[in-house]
Amino acid sequence: MLSISVEEFLFWKKKQLSKGGDQQAFEFLLDCVGGISASDLNLKILNPKGNLHLKKNLEFLESVWEDHLLKFCPIQYLCGITYWRDLKLNVSNKVLIPRPETELIIDIVFNIFRKKSEKLFFVELGTGSGAISIALALAYPFSEGLATDVDQDALEIATKNYINSSKQSNLKFYCGNWWSPLESFKGQLDLAISNPPYIPRDTYEKLPKEVKNFEPKVALLGGEDGLNHIREIIEKAPIFLKEKGWLILENHFDQSEKVKQLLIKNKFTSIKIVKDLSGIGRFTIGRYK
Rounded to 5 degrees, what are φ and ψ at 44? Predict the structure, then answer.
């Protein structure tokens, strides 16, 4: 650990923030790489004549911050981790950075399956970092979960995150496109969840640099109208779900009504559009028959 005076550190911090960027990203860097949390720093500031201890020197932290500012690289990729619900997850540019709004998927599941002792058999299609499936495997310890991804690199990250997050063995990972690795589980699933690529092509071309230049295109682009993957998931879901099994999908802010119609067309009932904290219809859910 490197010792530095609080006064020197605060002067350096002010200088870094004057270059641009937001304080939340800077605090994330200090916490993840520097080893000092915002709450710890606030306590240290009460005694500016004292010292604080860092895992990395100021020059290294400054170089990471400048990469973030100049190259628009997401701070989570530079730090190699992100936080999602109560999970600390490894991330790289092989996986999408899980978004705070996606955390509501877990709450939707809690509202459907209220007993944590339930023996669910669930799948997450397109797991990426593993955030959703790991959170469910932890929340329902008697369940059995499957998680698929088309990218082997993503699965290696998700597997590592599961091992780091849990001492359980109730989640298994499969490589393949959507339902294709799950042929032996037809008609057995209580629940299927996906946050698939749903960005329409025109919208994708206008995404901010920090998203378009760094996050995997395969995890974002959903075809011309953004619904290519959602259509495939919905159309094949009845083959794999039990009767009365649930499908939960995240979609683009303006796609919920179209997703609802796709669910109706494929014989789903109890269909509901769930809004996120911004009041946007972010999730569409349905029960098979």
Answer: -65, -35
Vertex 131 angle, CA 126 and 132, to 5°: 70
**pTM as predicted:** 0.91
The number of domains in the chain is 2
Is the separation of the CB atoms in 173 and 147 below 8 Å? yes
Q: Is residue 44 located within the same domain as residue 145? A: no
Residue 203 maps to which CATH number? 3.40.50.150
Structure tokens, 250: 């995240």
Same domain for 134 and 19: no
pLDDT tens series, the chain, 289 aa:
688 888 888 889 999 999 998 899 999 999 999 988 888 888 777 777 788 888 998 999 999 999 999 999 999 999 999 999 999 999 999 999 999 999 999 999 999 999 888 899 999 999 999 999 999 999 999 999 999 999 999 999 999 999 999 988 999 999 999 999 999 999 999 999 999 999 999 999 999 999 999 999 999 999 999 999 999 999 999 999 999 999 999 999 999 999 999 999 999 999 999 999 889 999 999 999 8
